[in-house]
Amino acid sequence: MALVVLFAAGFSYYLGTKSPRDLDPASTLPLALSRELKHNNDKSNLEAAWSDFVAIVGKENVSTVEDDLHTHANSDWSSYRNQESQKPFMVVYPGSTEDVSEIMKICHARRIPVVGYSGGTSLEGHFTPTRGGICVDFRRMDKIIQLHKDDMDVVVQPAVGWELLNEELAKDNLFFPPDPGPGAQIGGMIGTGCSGTNAYRYGTMREWVLSLTVVLADGTIVKTRQRPRKSSAGYDLTKLFIGSEGTLGLVTEATLKLTTKPANTSVAVCSFGTIRQAADCVSRVVGRGIPVAAVEILDDEQMKCINEAGTTSRTWTEAPTLFFKFSGTEHGVKEQISIVKDLAKKAGSVGFEFAKTQEEQDELWSARKEALWSTMAVAKPGDKVWTGDVAVPMSRLPQLIEETKDDMKRSGMYGTIVGHVGDGNFHSTSEIVPHPVDILTRPVILLSNENQRHDAEELVHRMVKRAVELEGTVTVSSYIYAPGIDLD
Ligand SMILES: Cc1cc2nc3c(=O)[nH]c(=O)nc-3n(C[C@H](O)[C@H](O)[C@H](O)COP(=O)(O)OP(=O)(O)OC[C@H]3O[C@@H](n4cnc5c(N)ncnc54)[C@H](O)[C@@H]3O)c2cc1C
Ligand SMILES: *[C@@H]1O[C@H](CO)[C@@H](O)[C@H](O)[C@H]1NC(C)=O
Ligand SMILES: *[C@@H]1O[C@H](CO)[C@@H](O)[C@H](O)[C@H]1NC(C)=O
């Protein structure tokens, strides 16, 4: 009997191996079934890694100085407050792609978490190491490697800043449009998939990166593609990395698309009695398909702050204000200004001023540039700032801003509002069509104590809810402990 059973079992097993098993019905691996990440932040492990890093980049390029750890954990302008434990154990400064690869191999083998750091201007704790480990700061990798004038592209290292890059490019009449915070650098701009005031006309970072060299978590070096602009081959790995905040790999080299520097540019500033009138003006300009380069809206409180901070050379009307940037041929710019001036008047503008020289342009735009800093400047010592972003369709903007301002007042909080007409719709400069735009509203709220922090959180939650009800999107985390945003 036993023999028969054994034989039957053995035979069934044999048959089982003959017929193929059913395929797993799931085509993806649910997170719940994936293995949990395990890090090793033991002091002895990190100290041993220190010696490994020193062997690669030298003692002078690894820092455990308290000040460095602090500045690589947070910034005054970030809305995320890191805890004392959320700082890197050390900061490593690689000098090349190979250095980064060697560093990542060590971190991989030792299970050490890694966070990349470029300009450190991101606003929501993007570079705060919430899981301990190390920070890889790219500041030594700040070279423009090669400019291909004829192909209109440039190969750069991650710590090249967009401002400096444009200074260099201007010598050859070339231009790289994405313009996020002053001090931001290519590595971080790729990390956040940034936008900027020029996004209205030129699109966001996603449109301006041709290829990337990336070091993956295990140290593997990949290049996403070659230089040609037109290629339909394969997966778009480049875009996958843009906006991934360093979670998929560290960018060590980028080939960027360039365009020609606009022959002429100008700036106009225009104030209104109400936010509604200002929004109406934007709708008219967009509706007519005027190819303005940028439109920014600042509320009366923001204008007041700029005056109080006194960092610009003039005194501004403390009313809802639109800032326009124009670019094109000399004739084109003149024409755009005159049309916009006319449309502004129809919408009820109370003042319209435009720049005739480069100096006047810089002066007029300075108020927009100083917006965040001026709100911080009127803060009392110890105050914290909280920024938050939501985007709504243009027509819903007045309601969103008015209700949010009322809400701020009711909650006894002080804040200013900057809106960004930056839909990220990309237009080649030769083909500009009218299109519905979204407008991003970013309140900057001042907090003087921890209680207010909770109130601010509630306020931001309500704003997010309001925006969603107005068919908007939340491009920033409303919740204080949730990093990960898109600042379009
Ligand atoms: C006054 C002000 C105005 C701003 N205006 C805008 C705006 O209009 N639009 C906008 O989009 N943003 C704006 N920002 C936010 C900020 O400037 C952008 O998010 C910018 O892209 C961040 O670049 P960074 O070099 O400072 O990056 P960091 O802060 O250093 O890093 C940002 C993220 O990228 C990752 N990272 C850094 N380097 C690398 C790398 N080499 N490889 C992979 N990942 C990396 C980091 O880990 C982090 O997650 C503003 C900020 C300020 C202070
Ligand atoms: C450390 O960085 C400095 C500055 O970039 C560089 O000159 C030096 O060679 C680096 N040290 C090593 C060992 O690579
Ligand atoms: C506009 O173009 C004209 C002619 O090319 C030039 O003289 C002038 O300096 C330009 N102005 C600006 C603000 O770029």
UniProtKB/TrEMBL annotation:
A Pfam family: FAD-oxidase_C
The record places domain FAD-binding PCMH-type at 84-261
Q: Name one GO cellular component term.
A: mitochondrion
Instruction: Please tell me whether the keyword Cell wall biogenesis/degradation is annotated for this protein.
Output: no
Which cofactor is recorded for it? FAD
A GO BP term here is:
lactate catabolic process
Question: Which segment of the chain is annotated as a signal peptide?
Answer: 1-16
Example GO molecular function: D-lactate dehydrogenase (cytochrome) activity
Name the keywords, alphabetized.
Answer: FAD, Flavoprotein, Oxidoreductase, Signal
Protein family = Belongs to the FAD-binding oxidoreductase/transferase type 4 family.
UniProt protein name: FAD-binding PCMH-type domain-containing protein
